[in-house]
Structure formats: structure tokens, C-alpha cells
Amino acid sequence: MPAASIRARARAEMINEIKAIARRHLAAEGANLSLRAVARDMGMVSSAIYRYFPSRDELLTALIVDGYHALGDAVEAGDAQVTDRADLRGRWLAVCHAIRRWALAHPAEYALLFGSPVPGYAAPQETTVAAARTPTALIGILIEGFAAGILTDPGPDGLPGPVQADLAALRELFAGHPEFAGLPEALLARGATAWIHCFGAVSFELFGQLNGVVEAREEFFDHQLRRMADLIGLPR
Predict the structure, then answer these.
(1) Are 80 and 125 contacting, i.e. CB atoms less than 8 angstroms apart?
(2) Contact 147, 176 (CB under 8 A)
(3) Fold adopted by 66-232
(4) Burial class of residue 3 (count of CB atoms within 10 Å of its CB; 0-12, 13-18, 19+)
């Protein structure tokens, strides 16, 4: 094997080890990461870790991108398990349950993605592509349902004018994708409402807001998401 390939493999393994240790720190201490602490756990001098991650923010960005991709993998796998692609309601439920399962299995990473902002950290543009994978699953359901006539235009639907303008502007960002650009604002609003409720339900459970209130967590989550499916207009 060429020396360059060996060095590249060794570097990749070192980066993976650094990120694995950083995830353990996330689980124990939250997002207050310290490169010095990570280096200490690896048995290396603190200056050596900067050859792989020049700053705490670059390490955080790597963890965030990995987290979004891991969640995206889980969501896409959940959607793919529904063999009847016309079963939009089943796909919606599968996607949402995949989000919940991933969050419960990776609470620290979920908190990094969807918890309180990390003080002093601003996510760079490179995180947006990875972040888009999960909402793309819902957008795909809306697009396919509307194109097939399964979902219809709700009409004005009481949508406030400023919100309608926001959603119309959002569609303009996807002018090169006519299937998205054709979605009515009111349907987008219903989809966004349901999507936000899904993550709100996951966060309430994960961060302890249901403790002592609801014990049948999975059943309650499923009930909520079925009501959200009704809101979107996904047929039973």
C-alpha cells in the first residue's frame, strides 16, 4: 500500500477516535467540549489534537454533521421500510418513529442538534446539507401526495398573510424544483406544523417533560403523530 494511503488511513482513524471520545464528553458534560480534555483522554499532548481539529468549533461542526447524517440514515431507512410507497400515512409514521428511536438511542447527539444553542458557536453552511436530509423525507411525502391527488390544496385555511408570504418565499428558493414549487402554502404550513410537533414531542420526552405524567410514551407519541397525519390530510 502506498505510504500516502497509509497516512490517510491513519489520519482517518485518529479523527474517528477523537470524535468518539468527544461524543463521550457530550454524553457526560453536554456541549461544553474541551479539546484539551479530549486530548488528555487520548493520551496525547493538547497541541497534537490541533493538527486534526484546529478549534473546538471545528470539532463541534464535525459532530453536528455526523449527527445529522446519522439521523438522516435512520429516517431514510424508516421510510424505505414501507414497501407500499402510496401509503403516505404509513411512511409519515415510520419516519417520525425513526426520529424518536434515534433520539432515544443517541440523546447527547440529539441534544447537540436540537437542544439549546452552544454559547459562542455559529453553525457554518456545511451543516445545512446534512441537516436537510431529514426534512426532505417529509417534503417528499408532501410532493408525492400532492402530485398523485392524494393531498389537495386546503385553500386559504386561515393562514396569516405574513406566514403565507414566508412560505411563498421559501418555495422561490426551490424554483429549480417545480415539484416543490407547486406545493400550496397552506399544505406546506400543515406539513411544517406537523414536523415541528414531531420534534417537540420527541424533545418533551427526551428532556424529561413527560416524567410523572405519561408512562406509555411510545403509544402517546404514536397517537400524537396520527393526529398530525390527520392535520396534513394523509388518508387513513
Answers:
(1) no
(2) no
(3) Tetracycline Repressor; domain 2 (1.10.357)
(4) exposed
- The domain ranges of the chain are 1-54, 66-232
**What's this model's pTM, rounded to 2 decimal places?**
0.92
d(CA 147, CA 53): 46
Q: Once rounded to an integer, what is the mean pLDDT over residues 122-148?
A: 92
Residue with the three cell numbers 438522516: 72
> What residue type is 83 in one-letter code?
T
Sign of CA dihedral 190, 196, 197, 199: positive
Return the DSSP state at 88. H
SS3 call for 183: coil
d(CA 50, CA 35): 8
7-59 residue pLDDT tens: 788 888 989 999 999 999 888 887 778 888 898 988 888 888 889 999 999 99
Q: Which of 107, 30, 117, 124 is nearest to 70 (CA)?
A: 107
Nearest-angstrom CA–CA distance, 22 and 36: 11
DSSP 117: P
pLDDT at 7: 77
Are the C-beta atoms of 64 and 126 separated by less than 8 Å?
no
CATH number of 1-54: 1.10.10
Instruction: Output 176 or 77, whichever has higher pLDDT.
Output: 77
Over residues 175-190, the pLDDT tens digits come to: 667 777 788 999 999 9
